[in-house]
Input
Amino acid sequence: MNHALGLAARGLGRVWPNPAVGCVIVQGGRVVGRGVTQPGGRPHAERVALAQAGPAARGATAYVTLEPCAHHGQTGPCAEALIAAGIGRVVTAMTDPDPRVSGRGHALLRAADIPVTEGICGAEAAQMNAGFVKRIVQGLPFVTLKMASSLDGRTALADGSSRWITGPAARRMVHALRLSHDAVMVGVGTVLADDPDLRARDIGAGHQPLRIVLDAGLRTPSGSRLVQTAQENPVWIVHDAGEAPAAAQALTKAGVLLVPVTAGLPGPQRAIAALRALADKGVTRILSEGGATLAASLLAADLVDALATFTAGLAIGAEGHPMLGRLPAVPLDQVRRYGPPVLQRFGPDTLTVWPR
Output
């Protein structure tokens, strides 16, 4: 199952709206088939592994990181494929939370007299597919809030200079984080200030994440790098419905997908509406790389599932730009706490991941 989980991790950021699933088929103590859900979500891991195993699948044990599907979509149910292949036993890590499946895949297998063992490495599998689970259960994507700062929590000098607070190794890790998420998200303020590209670079990326801008008033310039590359790699802009029809037309013509939400909502409610709209379109995992205002909005709306904070060994001082904007004043015992943290070193810098 650990091997299957390792395979599944290769699909993170590539398979949405589907879950990242791994499957390992073992016959007589030997691995005869391996599979991971393919980019775009099809074919599923079980079918890839069964195709590799061929006749050796008969009587073998299939280890799958998620309950095999039981519904008819673009392909037939994977539970039926396992039955047809003559699999002798199935071991799964977790039940699929999708109501079209939830328990039905296991039931189909047992009805065919195939023994099923559930819950092996279940916590690890749930963590792997936290984005898929959150989208199905809560209608929201999993959000990782990435921030990079000095020791004293500053992201730029007083004049806005921020290149580079962290070193090359930490910046390379940011690109790896982009690839493990479906989408990278910023606010329009970051677009106007920095004109970011948001694609993964310098790590041999075979695919690119979706790029998302939260831009209520459609102020994203048509000459920005994001818009200019929208035909190459997708760019979505979430905006207030009915805003700036001329700008909407120009952005659409450039290849940007516009995602309207209810106009006039205050900050936290606007953030919730934006993320629900993105989840409705299948997005399961978002890396937020926006500035202090967006970060504060996400935290104020309690939408952050993990904090990924890069800290460099320098101090900037009170005149520098803070890592976070204003947050609501609440008693300390009501503030969301994250942890326990996991620390990694990247050159002279430290990445601390604070899970929800």
About this structure: The chain has twelve helices and 16 strands. The chain has a mean pLDDT of 94.
